[in-house]
Amino acid sequence: MKRAALTVALALTTLAAPAGARSVYVNAGRLVDVTKGIEKTGQCVLVEDARITRVEACTAPPPGAQVLDWSAYTVLPGLIDLHTHLADTGQSADVAAPLKTSPQATALIGAHNAKITLEAGFTTVRDVGTYRGLTDVALRDAIAGGMVPGPRMFVAGAYITAPGGGGELNGVVPNDQLPADMRLGVVHNAGEARERTEYLFAHGADFIKMIATGAVLAIGTEPGKIELSEDEMRAVVEVARAHGSYATAHAHGAEGIKAAIRAGVHSIEHASLIDDEGLAMAKKAGVWLVMDIYDGDWIDQQGTKEGWPEEYLRKNRETTEAQREGFAKALKQGVKLAFGTDAGVYPHGFNARQFGYMVRYGMTPAQAIRAATLDAATLIGHDKELGSIEPGKFADMIAVPGDPLVDVGALESAAHVMKAGAIVK
Ligand SMILES: [Zn+2]
């Protein structure tokens, strides 16, 4: 599967690349060095085909290069959101929406979401699960093949979840009557966890997403309650590692977080109710926390207005402020934090709204930007080619008005976006 996708990608690259490299000379008004957390002025970036080849004090552009004048803006690496749900219907008052939407329609909705996300300045996402299993794989491959505009995607394929757990579409029809593509990751024991993980990798998953505890936005589950056993999670982690990959765990509750860390996960999603012991364990094990500290406000406001299930609103109230306090504590204690927002819970494209919250809860703007660029690239194991504006890396860059190192709100209005050397906005 992977080999086939690679062959297609190589073939397209060959077709797209003429004899001489296409070069673009980008004049950056202010250029953000995310590694040092500083800005430099008077810098130009030479892009040849998909890659950055030079970053230098502006001089005469190379002959034949297209000159791009971004001198009125601050230029940063393309942003990375580690927790999106592009390939899904998105949250609404209608709990049955994912079932009423066919896999084919879901994929097309995903294409719409992908374009919006890219134009908002997010050139890479980690898409952490869809109710319609494998629609994310199809979307990733369509984007990689140049058929659909969107961010570079890393995808989970489906949720590894307990029956009736936070990764299932509960409360619509009896779960055993749901179509098979909605239950690809349902497991009853460690053996099934192993087998389902193998299945997802065989069908194109890049990593595995486990639902360790209940969810805010799933009927009949409680965020504080553990749902997958430590043995089941360990089985998933072992198989993921054997594939050269990793598992991340959706975990709100303190016990679920600790069990997931003991099982060997690479990152924890949400971490809403993490306790001091969990923070210490995450720090010691080098486990990343991806905490979506913006969307609680959206759920509370929009969910109340639109009449989302009262159970969702209650669970959201029980986790929102606790999660923000946990974020502040994690930051103070030096636990690794990377940027992920749960896009899909709120409308795609608003991803950058979370930066302001990260600053409000203790990060400097430079830290928040790094969490969504170099640190996010490090989490997914692609920091050699993504996450900063340096020679050799993919030419993923955005231009924003104002100075995001002073006001991170500037990141909410990307004026220009380049992905792998292609000007998309
Ligand atoms: Zn999510």
**What is the beta-strand fraction?**
15-25%
* CATH homologous superfamily (4th level) name of the largest domain: Metal-dependent hydrolases
Low-confidence stretches: 1-19
Element-level helix/strand string = HEEEEEHHEHEEHEHEHEHEHHEHHHEEE
Distance from N terminus to C terminus (CA atoms, Å) equals: 32 Å
Evaluate the radius of gyration.
Answer: 21 Å
What is the domain tally? 2
SS content category? alpha/beta
- Multimer state: single chain
Ligand roster: zinc ion
What is CATH's topology name of the largest domain? TIM Barrel
**What average pLDDT do the residues reach?**
95
What is the spatial order of strands in the main beta sheet? 3-2-1-4-14-15-16
Helicity, as a percent range: 25-40%
Q: What's the story with the biggest beta sheet?
A: 7 strands, mixed
CATH architecture of the largest domain: Alpha-Beta Barrel
Q: How many distinct helices?
A: 13
* CATH level-1 class of the largest domain: Alpha Beta
Outline: globular
Number of distinct beta strands:
16
Structure description:
- The protein is of the alpha/beta class and 425 residues long.
- It is 35% helix and 20% strand.
- The chain starts with a helix and ends with a strand.
- It folds into two domains: 3-7 and 79-379, Alpha-Beta Barrel (TIM Barrel), CATH 3.20.20; 10-78 and 384-423, Urease, subunit C, domain 1.
- Strand 2 and strand 3 form a beta hairpin.
- The strands form three sheets. Strands 3-2-1-4-14-15-16 form a seven-stranded mixed sheet, with no helix packed on it. A six-stranded parallel sheet has the order 8-9-10-11-12-13.
- Bound molecules: zinc ion (ZN).
- The site of zinc ion has 4 residues, from loops.
